[in-house]
Design goal:
Length: 572
């Protein structure tokens, strides 16, 4: 096999200096090339010691023309290299002409191979040792240069991140109390500084995650952006990445997005296709946290090959998300405060109207009785007439008492004064009593009420309080049921009892369903249906005091389905 010729002076390592290099890779290339030529070997390979946390180090190989087609020898393992450097030989077959020289400071090993010349000479070993000492200086210089460049790059990146956060802070500080408009602007600000795509997902009042903002760097991708809007985060429990971030309040950083990851997190084939068409290779998503709870997620996508997310980027995103979450939370608090003031004013107006309503007929009946009594003291007023008027008076007094009791219940609940007087009882018997008590109201509403019981519905509860619960639920069904049949179902569920009250009336709009259990909350006009808006609030408080829960399922024009779950026994 022909050997590659070198100049005779190449044997003197002390007289040669490795050419200067501006990077570690270039220094290694120079080292292996000089080492191969210096020893007239067919192959020289240098392997650096793996960096912390890695299993393999960088390696560079120089081959003679004769070895280029063959490919050369594979690099020995660290164990083989250590045994070879120590003078020992392994039992397995080894290539002839293998010489290994350690680099300074444990930086790695330089290997020479040549199966034709047999073992290398002591002169080769000495020359290579001198060469690697000189190469160590070049490698150290290149390493220091690289670290200096890295430090300069990191400093510049840190300065850019600080400037970006300062701009974002000014934007958030000068924004109005409309979080939607501000988050749209914030998403556009993040593109292309921090991402090629940026979007914001917020949790609404029901806890569902909804996409509210989408921004992208390429104006030609508006059609694709519209498709991204069509696939907001999936439902609770789904593996959709931003839904999980918003739900679990934990950041997500995926460096290498591949097909397997896309398949794993997609909620449908169409969703997978949209993510694939966006073409991002990395994703960074952080929760919007305020007052210890997650309000949503802020997500960045990297499409350009040159963009890679680091731990510093994650920290910047988390800082930005905290500032954005503060804006969203303040806007919501302001909106809730205004709503509370509005509800208070509405309640005062409704309460005044509701309290005056029974007083008017009460006053009229009393005035009539007084006039009749004064007109003819010698003749008695017919008993039937007196009883009729007294019945009206009694009904109005009962109505007033109910209104006052409702206000007192709210006062007790607000001060934490609700106490339960538990006893063993049969819920079916109580439900039948409530149904009988409201029979007149059902007749007046033209509504048929049915009661079904499945299994054992006995438990340990406060009878008077559960009577309030059943009365409120059935009264609402009669009031808003539009004269359609109302069904009450009691069902045994092991250690719990389910109470369902269902009507086919006017229903409740989705935007109101989250508020009907609040104090003074209502889903309809008080002018048409009256009431203080306290019944469902008191009901929820009583149910939760028993360790249970209440929920509603409703559609406008298709009725409402209220369900109460009650543990049969007091939690221990």
């Amino acid at each position: 096999m022909p050997m590659e010729q070198v100049r005779p002076e190449a044997r003197s390592a002390d007289s040669r200096q490795p050419p200067s290099a501006v990077s570690v890779e270039e220094a290694l290339e120079v080292l292996v090339d000089v080492a191969r030529r210096l020893t007239r070997a067919h192959q020289a390979t240098v392997v650096l010691t793996p960096a912390p946390g890695r299993t393999k180090g960088a390696s560079v190989t120089s081959l003679s023309r004769a070895y280029e087609d063959w490919g050369g020898y594979s690099v020995p393992s660290a164990e083989d290299s250590a045994r070879r450097a120590g003078g020992g030989r392994g039992t397995r077959a080894e290539p002839r002409g293998w010489l290994s020289v350690p680099l300074p400071s444990g930086a790695g090993m330089l290997h020479l191979f040549d199966r034709e010349v047999g073992d290398f000479s002591a002169e080769d070993d000495e020359a290579l040792s001198a060469l690697v000492r000189l190469a160590g200086l070049a490698l150290e210089s290149a390493r220091l240069l690289r670290e200096e460049q890295r430090a300069r790059t990191e400093a510049e990146a840190s300065e850019q991140r600080a400037a970006f956060l300062a701009n974002a802070s000014r934007l958030l500080a000068s924004s109005s109390l409309d979080p939607k408009a501000t988050l749209d602007t914030l998403a556009r600000l993040c593109v292309p500084v921090m991402a090629d795509w940026c979007f914001v997902d917020l949790k609404d009042e029901t806890g569902s995650v909804q996409r509210t903002s989408v921004a992208h760097a390429d104006p030609g991708q508006d059609a694709l952006a519209a498709r991204v809007w069509d696939f907001p985060p999936g439902p609770d429990g789904s593996v959709h990445p931003t839904t999980r971030v918003a739900r679990d309040a934990e950041s997500l950083l995926v460096h290498d997005v591949d097909e397997a990851w896309l398949r794993r997190v997609s909620v449908s084939d169409a969703h997978h296709d949209v993510m694939r068409d966006v073409g991002f290779h990395s994703i960074l998503s952080v929760p919007l946290l305020a007052r210890g709870r997650s309000l949503g997620a802020l997500t960045f996508l990297a499409v350009q090959p040159s963009r890679h997310y680091t731990q510093a980027d994650l920290e910047t995103a988390q800082d930005l998300a905290r500032r954005a979450a503060l804006l969203v939370d303040n806007a919501r608090l302001y909106r809730e405060a205004r709503r509370s003031v509005r509800l208070r004013d509405e309640f005062l107006a409704v309460a005044s109207h509701e309290l005056k309503t029974p007083l008017t007929p009460l006053q009229l009946r009393l005035q009539w009785l007084r006039r009749q009594t004064r007109a003819d003291l010698s003749s008695a007023i017919p008993a039937s007439m007196v009883l009729s008027q007294l019945d009206v008076v009694q009904r109005q007094v009962d109505k007033l008492a109910g209104l006052v009791d409702g206000l007192l219940d709210v006062s007790r609940l607000s001060s934490g004064g609700l106490t339960l007087q538990r006893e063993d009882m049969d819920l079916e018997m109580l439900a039948r009593e409530v149904k009988a008590h409201l029979a007149l109201a059902a007749t007046q509403a033209g509504t048929q009420v049915s009661l079904f019981t499945r299994g054992d519905v006995r438990g340990h509860w406060d009878r008077a309080r559960l009577e309030q619960v059943l009365t409120h639920l059935l009264s609402n069904a009669l009031k808003y049921g539009a004269g359609q049949p109302v069904h009450i179902e009691l069902r045994d569920e092991g250690d719990k009892v389910a109470v369902r009250v269902e009507d086919a009336g006017i229903g409740i709009s989705p935007e109101y369903q989250a508020h009907i259990f609040e104090r003074f909350g209502r889903a309809v006009s008080e002018r048409h249906y009256g009431g203080l808006g306290l019944g469902l609030y008191v009901t929820r408080q009583i149910v939760e005091a028993h360790g249970g829960e209440i929920r509603v399922r409703s559609e406008p024009g298709r009725g409402s389905h209220f369900e109460v779950i009650l543990p049969k026994r007091e939690p221990t």
